[in-house]
Amino acid sequence: MTNTALITGASRGLGLALARSLAAAGWRLVLTARGAEELEKAAAELGATAIAGDVADPTHRARLAQAVPELDLLVNNAGGLGATPLPHLADYPLDVFDELLTTNVVAPLGLTQATLPALRRRRGSVVNISSDAATGAYEGWGGYGATKAALDQLSNVLAAEEPDVAVWWVDPGEMNTRMLADAVGAEEAANAGDPAAVAAALHDLIKGRPASGRVSLP
User: Which InterPro entries does the record match to this protein (predicted)?
Assistant: First the structure.
């Protein structure tokens, strides 16, 4: 039986790298991201299904859930950085923080809720992409880190409530991605890890299916 994965934020970075790794192993993939052109290109490369849209939109989440009546893996990878340049919390614009909470916390929880029936049927897995900013006090990263800390705790409780579904909240470390470049500059980001190497480690985690918990990669 072919395994099916739904990956958000799959048009570039870690999402695309993981999609490539899973496709090479024969997985059926449903990919989503906001940028339709990049997403269609990735899907064409991998023989995947592309459903462009914003996971913060409940209608889009419902459409994704309908596309995966049987699901082995949900990867909540899509997320936002928030305000840039990274502000101190004393100056953090609350309207931006509210949007970031929706993108980084409400959206992955909503998609998890929508796909849980399919995941339960297949004793599937959920991967929520976290960050070391969820646990470390890094200047300027308070808004983003707070959303990832919230996602960690949601994952922790989900693991306790859904014993038949493996749940991992994963800190991938710094990667050379557009998001990191937006935060620290392209030159510094270029020295960060390769998303493909992190994706390989994440694929090994998925195959090994350890107990639910927080994982740091690679």
Answer: NAD(P)-bd_dom_sf (IPR036291), Sc_DH/Rdtase_CS (IPR020904), SDR_fam (IPR002347)
